[in-house]
Amino acid sequence: FDSSNYAKDIVGVSISPKSKKIKLKIKAHGRQKYYLDTKPIHASQKIIKETDDYGIFQVELIPNFELQSMILSNIDTLEVMSPKSFRETIQKRLGRANILYPNQQ
Length: 105
Known about the structure:
By secondary structure, the chain is an alpha+beta fold. It has a four-stranded antiparallel sheet. The protein is globular, with a radius of gyration of 15 Å. Helices cover 34% and strands 25% of the residues. The chain contains four helices and four strands; from the N terminus they run H-E-H-E-E-H-E-H.
């Protein structure tokens, strides 16, 4: 078992046999852009655009649970721009979270 080869296209350790590598674009708002610049999500990360307010980063990897968790843990500063299918996966998880945490008054 070659662990470095196994993990080269993922964040974390879990991988689905059916998954394929994607080009993921993430917009990091505010100070999060500096954090991603100094602590890349993945070795393939590159910056696509940078403004005073945000940075757009691209990574090429296989999406997995750890990647979703990393994005969701910073959901107030990270926005998945593409691909649409991965953005929808994050939106579905946010929808389920809204059910668990309804606005109670």
